[in-house]
Amino acid sequence: MRISTLPVKLAATISRDLTRIAGRIGQHQRTNVREEWGPGKILNLDPTTGIATEDHFVFIPFPVERYLWVKRIYRPDCERIRAVPMWAGSWLNGNEWRAHISSGQINPKEGDLGALDSWANHDASLGCDVWLPHVLGEWGYARYVKRTYPTSGLDFVCDRPVQFHELEALYAPAVIDYISRISGDIPIDWIGHSMGGQLGYAYLGAHKDERIAALATLGSPGKLTKNATKALALIGRLSRMSGYLGIVERSPSQLANRAFLPATKGAANVLSMFAPSSEFAEILYNSENTNPALVAPFLEKVVERAPPGIVEFFVNMIRTEQFASLPLAGEEARNYGELMGGIKQPVMIIGGGKDNVCPGECVEINVENLQSSSRIALIEEEGAGHVDLVVGESAFSSMVAIDNFFSVVT
Question: How far apart (Å, rounded) are the C-alpha atoms in residues 385 and 328?
Fold first, then answer.
């Protein structure tokens, strides 16, 4: 990890000390999920860590008019120090923050996180109220909710294209309002990977929401170069794979899982697409830095279909070399790069030294855009690819750095 202290800006001191966690078992009372679909239901209480998970459903207003599934992970038996919404990338669901972040799950060794081996669980164990919005998780959460809450009668599937400006203008405000109401009067610290970090920049720049105390982004581009075209093509290929394999009912995450298996009758062998030496791996992660055995279950659980409107947003970024919304009929495009100049909150920016989706120049332009931020810390995770920032040992060091950053500035 390389830390850059920026001139004129005060960077937070980042500690590399590993945090020791001791799980406790508490007594908990179940709540009724039918009560206005909140404040949730304890679906699982881990007796080792004392961590509970709840389902919450946030209504997104007109013209979207759908319910968004948001997972809450926290310790019911301790006072919560901050709310932490963790926003996923453009082709992932909120489960990316529940993936393994240390190789101990493959090769156990002293000092691993054990039962807390995920970013979400680790932060919850520290007293954070963790929220995982499944913003683009139409495949996974629609089936999950239908199976878990068959009598809800609520619409969880959006029959209209999702656009990035709608995430900024409708989805994010609804989620933050909900978190503020449920978590109470505690700081809200936003963590975003890839597009999840871009959404943080766009939301704070456009809405000036003072409830957000700090922002941390990982591999979130302030611009995109033509190198990202290959990544978009590969993601699009994965999204279309259901038709390619003739398994329409399967989600992209199931297909990603299948991609690691040998070819079966009637299905193409797409194993090579995910192998460490493949073009896909070269774009999305650095196999020399992150154990492919960690990436495989990550893709199995988190891959979602990339909505055409989101892909078009990225294509427009490449074409215009600007971080801006798409120009729509009757509306002017929002230049989020310019709006970032009004962000006052402390910001930590983390980029991967081997990130082929969001290379250094695409991360560093965010520093130029953040003209008014009170504090900026810029970190390069040497050797980390795009996915490595949230999976594997690079993710572990980033997690510790962000935890310490939030502790200092909020």
Answer: 34
Tell me the average pLDDT of the chain.
Answer: 75
Length of the chain: 410
pLDDT above 50 for 346: yes
Q: Is residue 233 part of a domain?
A: no
Question: Residues 386, 357: contact at Cβ < 8 Å?
Answer: yes
Which amino acid would we find at residue 219?
G
Number of domains within the chain: 1
pLDDT at 361 over 60: yes
pTM of structure? 0.82
Across the range 244-271, mean pLDDT stands at 37
Angle between helices 172-183 and 195-207 (to 10 degrees): 80
Full residue range of the structural domain in which residue 120 is found: 2-12+50-107+115-223+331-409
Task: Please tell me the predicted confidence (pLDDT) of residue 133.
Answer: 93
Query: Token pair of 304, please?
Result: 């979602």
User: Residue 30's CB: how many other CB atoms inside 10 A?
Assistant: 11
Does residue 97 contact residue 83 with C-beta atoms inside 8 Å?
A: no
